[in-house]
Amino acid sequence: MYLRHRQVEKEAVKSLPAPEPGESVREAMDKVTLRWALMDALAQLSEEERQAVTLVKVEGLTHKEAAVVLDEAEGTVRWRVFEALNKMRRLLESEEECVESTMPSS
């Protein structure tokens, strides 16, 4: 079990992106942390919300194009994207509050 855990850690470290030129290691880690938080927030959405927000905000489709892909009304897609973004915002804000509450005060 321990050896498997160490292997997973090594693979995770290898997959971390190198900092961009002029970017500190801390800035690169902040990007990784944000990426993980966004992935976690996406995973907590319903399948319908996740599909809609991914097509519109990640793939760059218009609401109308996403509606065709999903075989839904455009208004339904707009609503799902709106709801998904609000849920993700709340999840990310609550995660940020949790992190801040565990930080030592200066």
Task: Outline the biggest β-sheet.
Answer: none
Whole-number mean pLDDT: 81
Count every helix, treating DSSP H or I runs of 4 or more residues as helices.
5
Distance between the termini: 39 Å
Beta-strand content bin: under 5%
The radius of gyration over CA amounts to 18 Å
The coarse silhouette is elongated
Bin the helical content. Answer: over 70%
Low-confidence stretches: none
Number of strands: 0
**CATH class assignment of the domain at 40-106:** Mainly Alpha
CATH architecture of the domain at 40-106: Orthogonal Bundle
For this structure, what is the CATH homologous superfamily of the domain at 40-106? Winged helix-like DNA-binding domain superfamily/Winged helix DNA-binding domain
What is the string of SSEs from the N terminus onward?
HHHHH
Derived from helix and strand composition plus strand pairing, the structural class reads mainly alpha
Quote the CATH topology of the domain at 40-106.
Arc Repressor Mutant, subunit A
